[in-house]
Amino acid sequence: MSQDIINNRFLEESVFAIADGYCVINLSKNIVRGSMYQVVDGKVYNLNEQLGMPENSNLQILVDVWALTIPEEGRKDFLKEFNRESLLNRFENGERHISFRYWTRTATFEPMLAEDHLALYREKETGDIIAVNYVLDRTEHYRLKEKELALEKSNREYAKLLEEEKKHTALIEELTKQLQSQLELFAVSIPGGVKISNDDPEYSFKYVSEQFANMLGYKTPKELIEASSGSILGLAHPDDIEFGLADALNQYTHSDHYATIYRIRCKDGTYKYIEDRGQKVVKEDGTIEHWNLMLDKNDFMHNSIELESEKKANKSKSDFLSRMSHDMRTPLNGIIGLLQIAERHFDDKDLLLESHKKMQVAANYLLSLINDVLQMSKIEDGNVPLTKDIIDFSKLTKDIIDIIEQRAKERGIKMQFNAKNDIRYPFVYGSPVHLRQIFLNIYGNCIKYNHIGGSIITTSDYTETDDGVVMYEWTITDTGIGMSKEYKEHIFEPFSQERQYIGSTHHGIGLGMSIVKGLIEKMGGSIEVESEEGVGSTFIIKIPFKIAPTPYKVNKQTSEIKIDGLNLLLVEDNELNVEIAETLLSDEGAVVTVAKDGLQAVNIFKEKPEGSFDAILMDIMMPNLNGWDTTRRIRSMKRSDAERVPVIAMSANAFAEDIINSRISGMDEHLTKPLEPARLVNVLKDCIWRRKHKL
């Protein structure tokens, strides 16, 4: 490389376009040719003038003076790297590119993490060893890696490079003519890679640097070009092509350069984020080329995405806690207020009755809120064990209708049930507790967001398969307020809520439909929704079931079983729960014996003559001995009634694994608190009937 080329303004301007500082060093003569320069915020500073040194100064003197700008802890390493004898030896040993980092100060006395790149070669005419020194400001990169800066710092990087490129666009063509042989030397000295594209619709490659090919896992530029069909469009992620092109073209409308980030396919099939900094170059013949600096931004983008996801997660948690606090306090406030009213007006029976009804509604809502949160937590963790019990559709349907019709009646809503075909397979294997939860959630919404005096129509059908599986389908249509198009797209997402509706007392936290979808998909089924604002909504549920054999006669009659006169053992440690259950059962005419814990229950059953109890109602979580172990001890007794007496769990433990544990321990059924009187009576009758007929 000749002296006139080294000092050529085009070379200096080209270096300026890609670096934050530069100088040319003659290692053989131990001088810095001309002066050292630094670029800060687009302004060029002559460091020789700032240091009081003339042009063509002694290298070692300049290094010693510049070392004073470096903190003491890094000064020794800097002087070691910039040792002339060491650099000459490294050149003789075959090194052609040397880079190192150190903390210094800019010409404006700002801290800077400098990354020095030395491109070494032997000058043809003189035989001197020349080092082209490029200095890159890595301060921003350092801070990004430390997660001290956010995405806006990247914008400053873009602005800085684009501002520099804008000043020197006119020089690129001339630089190409004079320094074509040095292109690869410059490419080695800068981070990332270089490409030049034609101005055609495909932006076909005209030149690709080896560094760019290596960045994507290719050994040579030729290999990259062949894999891409000769165009950057052949490498870009399909989802990013439209955005990347639009972004670049939009920036081109305002200037002759652009900077954008998109994903490019690597040789191994994976994608990595790159930053494409482009410059439009108009050649003498009027043709246009696009010169691009390609920087690896994969780690930066993934860190940024991770930070953004973390922010969203924290916001979701905050919103959830705020919503939970509001929705739990609302019914609690109502219950407390109604209790105060009842205390002041205890002699007003009508007012007390009305207050009691309102408190029951608020308490039921609070319970459903807690159940939804716990159930959603289970679904998100993938910890929802489904039972494989034999489901009696007739019985399950009756249970659901008994609950729903009462709720609907309170709002004057008509319920209609239609079956396209008679149920051929009324018994299937499944998880009845979860199936009940699905329909109660859907019907609950149909009632909550319906008009007073509206209707809910349910149509059922089934499709039989050849592998012992039947696909049941339910279509549930209401005449409610309907959903907006926007909300419909997010109805099954956790915490999604439609706009507030004046006719609804409680709005929930938006978990019900998310739970429904999670449970249905866990069962291998699907759910769809159709809705129109002001008209109503339709839910289409499809769930496959394995056909089960008939466990006992479908036409059994439990009406022969009477609660009146039954002797029941109630095992419960909570006094309030004892009072509630004892009152409900006594009102039905049953005789109730109370045991305060499991051990007491075992002793009472042991001391009483055989056949003293018609059934046992068992709490689960109790001191001394829990309900499961208590049931096992009773079942293991050497007496005839120990094995056949019905044991029914009455517990606040409401998850599927709790029900499974109850069955394993020897219990016949599992009821969750708070108790529904009608369901308690029906389950009690059913268990006694089955035990009586040895089913």
Instruction: Supply the CATH superfamily name of the largest domain.
Output: Histidine kinase-like ATPase, C-terminal domain
Number of domains: 5
Q: Helix content range of the residues, please?
A: 40-55%
For the report, how would you describe the main beta sheet?
7 strands, mixed
CATH hierarchy, class of the largest domain: Alpha Beta
Low-confidence stretches: 1-8, 176-183, 185-189, 499-507, 552-556
From the coordinates shown, what is the CATH architecture of the largest domain?
Answer: 2-Layer Sandwich
* Overall number of strands: 23
Taken as a percent bin, the fraction of beta residues is 15-25%
CATH topology of the largest domain: Heat Shock Protein 90
Structural class: alpha+beta
Discrete helix count: 25
Mean pLDDT, rounded to whole units?
79
Radius of gyration: 40 Å
What do you see in this structure?
The protein is α+β, with helices and mostly antiparallel strands. The protein has five domains: 3-144, Beta-Lactamase (2-Layer Sandwich), CATH 3.30.450.20; 192-296, PAS domain (Beta-Lactamase); 317-378; 384-547, 2-Layer Sandwich (Heat Shock Protein 90); 558-692, Response regulator (Rossmann fold, 3-Layer(aba) Sandwich), CATH 3.40.50.2300. The chain is built from 25 helices and 23 strands. The strands form four sheets. Strands 12, 13, 14, 15, 16, 17 and 18 form a seven-stranded mixed beta sheet that branches. A six-stranded antiparallel beta sheet has the order 3-2-1-6-5-4, with helices on both faces. α20 (575-587) links the parallel β19 (567-571) and β20. α14 runs antiparallel to α15 (349-380), α15 (349-380) crosses α19 and α21 (598-607) runs parallel beside α22. The model is unreliable at 1-8, 176-183, 185-189, 499-507 and 552-556 (pLDDT under 50).
